[in-house]
Each structure stands twice: as structure tokens, then as C-alpha cells.
Write a structure and sequence with these properties.
- This protein is of the alpha+beta class and 415 residues long.
- The chain has two domains: 228 residues, no CATH class; 141 residues, no CATH class.
- The chain has 16 helices and six strands.
- A four-stranded antiparallel beta sheet has the order 3-4-6-5.
- α2 packs antiparallel against α3, α3 packs antiparallel against α16 and α7 crosses α8.
- The chain is globular, with a radius of gyration of 24 Å.
């Protein structure tokens, strides 16, 4: 549901992390923290309860293993070390959490954005999405009714909802007609493919010089073409500048180059990468067809079999919902460790921001691997652009990813 709410991308979103918190605390009314609908039946509830039970029972075992595998260094705060150890355990086990796990999410947007969001929710095949559409409409009507006045008008909102429904039906109809609706790749493993790219490094230098020039782009490009390879490299180095940290990015000239990636990664990694706003992201429906892996460190902690059991319970529950005709509900039961295929289409400036941010040492290993692979694919077609990404953390040694942040936080609180 959080991904459906965020799909329009025109708002600011703040979503509760699945990485640094234990998600096994009971709900106020009792029971584990997952979405419930009576129509989903007892099998759904049993599967969810079993998955959450495995998650909950695995936490202390993985925490104990991580504390022994990554002992505190001399002079390191024991409290900060234990917080980092717990974060490591939550990171390793978050692939068990099902997509139905309940999350807090904040959203800040304009009235026009809420109008568009409500219309998309009203047209969605998932009943929960339509219910949220009605709830958001009722809330917005209390504070800025004029911005959503058209939603309930048959000739405006009604026609727009019908258009969205027809568009979705057309996509499904043509996928079925062409025989491309179902996955035929059993567990292909994670992958990052560069499907296409546009622009050259000469185009990049031209674009970087445009704002400082007083001539048209054709004249600038002609001057760039007259430069030797050594001169072009020197100019590019000067134009990029001395980047002291990843927030020091070159100018908008980088937006003259673009890349289209196809990624297969676990749903947890997708949830983090999907949150980037300045790109186009498209994704297929979550299913178990692309497989899921058990993290090596979970196996080392002695929880590999339990982790695999949760994945199997998840897949069987998905198959049961599909057999019952509950296609839109079926992804609820799939663990975040199952893989999904998605597209990231972005320019070079956003690629630099995403890759340097998501390759950071505190990042989750799965999306760190995606970010580094994206940089490597860019290096194959635009080596100069990849060379600009000087704040990519490629270290892959086992570590407590959260440790640096915990130590910094403790330093701030003590001061």
C-alpha cells in the first residue's frame, strides 16, 4: 500500500524503516503487525502469523550471533555497539517481513497532488487502495474542499477513474494476447542490465559549458569537437570540480546523458530504490517466480532453515490466494526477500546521486550491490561519468553497517 501511495511521486514522503526496528511488537488490539481483511480467510492469517513468529524467534538468535561475530572495538561504547548489532540483525531478517506488514507513512503535498492521488486510488484493483482513496478524500474535504471538488463529479472524476481502469485492462489484455503475461524464468537470480543509454561524453562537455557560454549549442559543440582527447579530459575534470563529499555534484549538464536499467532485486531493496523522485521507475507485480535467497549471515547464525521455511510458507499462501482468484491480494503474503523486476530510467546527475547514496557503508547489502552494478554498467559506456562518482563505497567486508551512525549519534547526544 505504501508503494501505491508513493507511485505518483509528486509529494514528499516519510516512511518508517524496516531496517532499524523490530517489527514483532503486537498491535494495540493484539496480534502481529500486518494488514487484515476477513475475506482473505484463515489460511492467510495462519501464514502471516507463522512468518512473523519465525521472524520474532530469529531475532534474539541473530542478535547473539552478530554480537559475537562483530565484537566491540576498544573504546567503543557498549550501548552504541549493541544498537548497531540489533540493526544488523533487523537488516538480515527484514527479508522475512511480508508485504502486508503495517507501516507508518507521512505525506506532504499540494491540493492538486491529492486530487490526482485520490483518482488513482479509486481506480486501483486493490480494495485497500480504494478504501484509502475514500479516507483521504474525506480528510482533504475537511481542510481544502475546493481542490477535490471534481473527484466525485461523474463527468470529471468518474470519467478519469474509468479511463485509468480501461488503460490497466488494455495493458493486461495485450500482455495476455502476446503471451508475455506470465513469468517463465524460475529463479534467475539478481541482476542489473543497462538496456539503453543516450548521449556522448562530448555532449556532456557541451552541456556543462552551455551556461558559461554566450553562443548557441551548435557552436559550443563545434569547439568541443576541435579539442584533443587530453584537452577534453582536462576540461571535464575542471568542470566537475573537486568533490569533497557526495553532495558536491556537477551542474545540470549531467542531465544531458541518460540510462535505462532493468533490475531484478529483492522487494526490500526495491522499496528503498523506488523512493527516489527524480527518475522514472516502473515495476512488475510482485510474485515468487523470480525467487528469493537466504542471506549467508543468517545461515551462519543458525537460522537458515527457519528463514527458508518462512519463504516457503509465503509462496504457498500466495499460490492459495491466486487459486482463489484473489490476484490483487496475493502479493500481501510475499516476504520482502522475494525478487521483483523493475526499471530505473534516469539521467547521469540523478544516477550519481542515487549510486553514491545507496552504495554507502550504512546501506543495505542488496541495494548497495545494485548501486555498484549500475556504476559499473555506466563505466562501460561513459567511463568519464563513472570516474566522477568518487564517493562510491565498494568495500564488501562483513561489518556492522549501522556502527558509524550510532557512534556519531552518541557523540552528538553527549556533547
Amino acid at each position: 500500500m505504501t508503494k501505491i501511495l508513493q507511485r505518483p511521486r509528486l509529494a514528499a514522503y516519510l516512511e518508517q524503516s524496516t531496517r532499524y526496528l523490530a517489527w514483532d511488537d503486537p498491535m494495540p488490539g493484539g496480534g502481529f503487525r500486518y494488514h487484515r481483511e476477513e475475506t482473505l480467510g484463515a489460511g492467510y492469517r495462519a501464514a502471516m502469523d507463522r512468518i512473523f513468529t519465525i521472524y520474532s524467534e530469529s531475532i534474539p538468535q541473530v542478535v547473539a550471533w552478530a554480537a559475537e561475530a562483530y565484537p566491540a572495538a576498544d573504546g567503543e561504547s557498549e550501548a552504541a555497539h549493541m544498537r548497531a548489532v540489533k540493526a544488523k540483525a533487523f537488516d538480515l531478517l527484514r527479508g522475512l517481513l511480508p508485504a502486508a506488514s503495517l507501516s507508518h507513512m507521512g505525506m506532504y503535498a499540494t491540493g492538486q497532488t491529492y486530487e490526482q492521488l485520490i483518482l488513482h486510488l479509486m481506480a486501483h484493483p486493490l480494495p485497500e487502495a480504494r478504501e484509502y482513496g475514500r479516507m483521504i478524500l474525506g480528510t482533504v474535504q475537511q481542510v481544502m474542499p475546493s481542490f477535490v471538488a471534481r473527484v466525485e463529479r461523474p463527468d470529471r472524476g468518474g470519467e478519469w477513474v474509468s479511463f485509468l481502469e480501461q488503460r490497466a485492462e488494455a495493458g493486461q489484455r495485450w500482455s495476455d494476447k502476446l503471451g508475455i503475461g506470465a513469468s517463465v524464468e524460475p529463479d534467475p537470480g539478481p541482476s542489473v542490465k543497462l538496456l539503453s543509454h543516450s548521449g556522448t561524453e562530448e555532449d556532456l562537455i557541451t552541456a556543462l559549458l552551455f551556461e558559461a557560454s554566450g553562443q548557441g549549442e551548435s557552436a559550443i559543440r563545434a569547439a568541443v569537437d576541435r579539442m584533443s582527447a587530453i584537452e577534453q579530459a582536462a576540461a571535464l575534470a575542471d568542470l566537475v570540480g573537486d568533490r569533497k563529499n557526495r553532495r558536491h555534484r556537477p551542474g545540470r549538464g549531467l542531465e544531458s546523458l541518460s540510462y535505462r536499467f532493468e533490475v531484478v532485486a529483492d522487494y526490500g531493496a526495491f522499496r528503498d530504490l523506488q523512493r527516489h523522485r527524480m527518475l522514472t521507475v516502473q515495476w512488475q507485480t510482485l510474485s515468487p517466480h523470480l525467487g528469493a535467497g537466504v542471506p549467508d549471515e543468517v545461515v551462519q547464525a543458525g537460522c537458515g532453515d527457519a528463514y527458508q521455511e518462512a519463504l516457503d510458507v509465503s509462496a504457498r499462501a500466495w499460490a492459495a490466494l491466486i487459486s482463489a482468484g484473489r490476484t490483487s491480494h496475493a502479493p500481501y503474503v510475499l516476504c520482502l526477500g522475494y525478487r521483483i523486476r523493475f526499471i530505473l530510467d534516469l539521467n547521469a546527475r540523478e544516477a550519481m546521486q542515487l549510486i553514491e547514496l545507496r552504495s554507502g557503508r550504512e546501506g543495505h547489502p542488496t541495494y548497495r550491490a545494485v548501486a555498484i552494478a549500475m556504476r559499473d554498467r555506466i563505466a562501460e559506456v561513459h567511463p568519464a561519468v563513472a570516474a566522477m562518482m568518487t564517493h562510491v563505497d565498494e568495500q564488501s567486508e562483513p561489518r556492522l553497517e549501522r556502527m558509524m551512525s550510532e557512534l556519531k549519534a552518541e557523540g552528538r547526544s553527549s556533547s
